[in-house]
Structure formats: structure tokens, C-alpha cells
Write a structure and sequence with these properties.
The protein is an alpha/beta fold. It has 3 domains: 23-107, no CATH class; 117-242, Rossmann fold; 245-310, no CATH class. 50% of the residues lie in helices and 13% in strands. It has 15 helices and 6 strands. Strands 1-2-4-3-5-6 form a 6-stranded mixed β-sheet. A hairpin with a 2-residue loop joins strand 1 (118-125) and strand 2. The longest helix is centred in the N-terminal third of the chain and has 17 residues, at 53-69.
């Protein structure tokens, strides 16, 4: 396998492709292209076939095999990684696909690590560890950045943003926390809304102070949350506006359903909420996948418990601690 040419300048695609009528599938297909290195034309060609988690997996696996046969390793990694995304968590293939994509990633981009341009570390955390990639500033140092993703992210997706920041004068510590990448898929660590806890572990391990934290996607909640509780963080960037996860969870529902779910939550009526979500799961396979995966990743036994945990992911009542 020919390795990636590390002399290439870091460049990013811009814009958004209209690939699928379903907002979630459309977002994830754009993610394959924008963050993971998928080929736009190939993704567009298969996008119309996707209307369930099952044919998402088949379509992305097909593209991964095609890219492998043609020696396009970067595209293969992108499609392998994101084929795993909609596999149900109870399926052993989910972990296999994740590991396959990760192993290929570190082989293909191996020169960055072998030549010392990027270091890999493990920060002890709980009964396991948090994986870290570190890139040192290539020019006069301007500062230190902590960089992380959000819900269901893989830190390999932020490999090139990390390199870009390093090219522009920043030491960058890119990390995964609970529920992200291999921390969930390999170590089975579930999500916590208290993002200051894994962030503290990173800051303590590397003895860091005066840092900027950048969180992407749900990181738009997680990073400000960490900044509110750890004053070693001097600047915070929400690479998304994400003050409240419950609001996001409800936004796609019709207003009567939103009002009903909010009422059931506030009054603590779990049984009707579980019954409502069960009916929604029976009618819509994508709702079924979202709820089952959410319950798994957030360590919840019922839809109502999942909603209750989601409600903790809010900046309400703590935003004033961000100075």
C-alpha cells in the first residue's frame, strides 16, 4: 500500500452537498466527504439508495471494497469508518469495522507518526485510557489548543484540522472522551455530560495551563462546559452552537409531540413516554436506530432514561461560569 504523501499542504473542502432527503442521512453523507475523505461523486452516486440503516451499511461497504480494489486507500478508510456508523451496537461487525478502519488509518498516514510529526499518547482514565494525538507548532508558538469532537465522533476525523492548527503556530492535543471513537467502541465507556472530567485528565497528564479548547458538533456544548469548570482553559470555541441537547432532540418533532414529551419529562411520567417512543420506533426504522444507539451510548435502559440523560447536556444554569 502506498502511504499518504505528508508533504501535501492541508486543504479543506467547503460547502454542503444535497445528497439525501433525510436530514440525518444527508448530514452523515456530507460528513463522509468533508471530514473523512470520501469521494464526492461516488457518494452522490449511491446516496439515493439510502433510506435505512441496512442499506446505508451496504452502500458504504460497497464503496470501501471498490476503493480498495482501485488502491484508493484514503477513500477506503472514509467509507469503512462511516459504514460502521449505522450498524446496530449489538452487532459484532460494528467493532470489527471500526477497528479495520482505524488500523488502515494509522498505516496509511504512518509517516506522520514514524517521522515524529504527530505523537500518540494514552492518558489513564477510569479503568481505561483516553487516546491522544499531539502535533507540535511548526512555527513560533502562538498558544496551545485542546481539540475534540462531539456525539459519536472519531478523533481521526479531526486529524487534518489538528495539522492545520500546528502549521499555523499552535501545539494541539486532539483527544477522545467517553462515548467517542474507540473509547466507546473498544473500551465501552459511555457518555458523560461532565466534560470537565476527561478534559481535566488531559490537562493534568500534560501539565497544561492557559489553553484554548475547541469542540466540534456536540462539542459546542462539551467545550464550553469544560471551560465553565476548569480555569486553565482561557478561551473556548464552540465549533457549533449547541447550548442544549434536549432542544435539539425535540426540534424535528411536530409541536404537539414536543409539548407532550416536554410535559411527560417535567412531570416524571416515564411509562407513557416509553410507550410513545416505542410506537415511533415501530413506525420508523431510523428512529429505532437512533433511540437504541442513544440508549447504548448514554447507558440508559429505556427511552425515558435516555431523554433524562440528554436533558443534562445543557449550558443553562452554568453558562455564567464561563469568564
Amino acid at each position: 500500500m502506498k502511504k499518504y504523501d505528508i508533504t501535501q499542504k492541508v486543504e479543506f473542502r467547503t460547502g454542503t452537498y444535497n445528497l439525501n432527503q433525510d436530514a440525518n442521512f444527508n448530514f452523515q453523507l456530507n460528513r463522509v466527504i468533508m471530514w473523512d475523505g470520501g469521494d464526492p461523486e461516488e457518494i452522490a452516486d449511491i446516496s439515493h439508495r439510502i433510506n435505512s440503516s441496512e442499506n446505508w451499511v451496504k452502500a458504504l461497504e460497497y464503496l470501501a471494497k471498490k476503493a480498495h480494489a482501485e488502491g484508493r486507500t484514503g477513500n477506503e478508510i472514509a467509507c469503512l469508518r462511516m459504514s460502521e456508523f449505522f450498524i446496530y451496537d449489538t452487532d459484532p461487525k460494528k467493532k470489527q469495522r471500526y477497528q479495520q478502519a482505524a488500523d488502515l488509518f494509522y498505516e496509511y498516514y504512518g509517516d506522520y507518526f514514524e517521522k515524529g510529526l504527530v505523537e500518540r499518547h494514552k492518558v489513564p482514565f477510569g479503568k481505561g485510557y483516553l487516546p491522544i494525538m499531539f502535533a507540535r507548532a511548526n512555527s513560533k508558538k502562538k498558544g496551545t489548543i485542546l481539540l475534540h469532537g462531539g456525539n459519536d465522533s472519531y478523533f481521526e476525523e479531526f486529524f487534518f484540522p489538528m495539522l492545520y492548527f500546528a502549521e499555523n503556530g499552535f501545539d494541539v492535543y486532539l483527544y477522545e472522551g467517553p462515548e467517542q471513537g474507540g473509547v466507546l467502541r473498544v473500551q465501552n465507556m459511555k457518555f458523560t455530560h461532565k466534560w470537565e472530567i476527561p478534559t481535566k485528565a488531559v490537562l493534568d497528564f500534560f501539565k497544561l495551563d492557559d489553553v484554548t479548547i475547541i469542540g466540534a458538533s456536540l462539542g459546542g456544548y462539551l467545550a464550553p462546559r469544560a471551560a465553565a469548570f476548569d480555569k486553565r482553559i482561557k478561551k473556548v470555541v464552540g465549533w457549533s452552537i449547541f447550548p442544549d441537547f434536549f432542544d435539539v432532540l425535540l426540534c424535528d418533532h411536530p409541536k404537539p409531540v414536543r409539548d407532550m414529551i416536554d410535559f411527560m419529562f417535567r412531570t416524571g411520567i416515564d411509562a407513557p413516554m416509553n410507550k410513545l417512543y416505542t410506537k415511533m420506533m415501530e413506525k420508523d426504522e431510523l428512529v429505532r436506530w437512533n433511540l437504541l444507539h442513544g440508549m447504548y451510548a448514554y447507558d440508559a435502559d429505556t427511552p425515558a432514561e435516555y431523554v433524562r440523560k440528554i436533558r443534562c447536556f445543557t449550558l443553562k444554569n452554568i453558562a455564567d461560569r464561563i469568564t
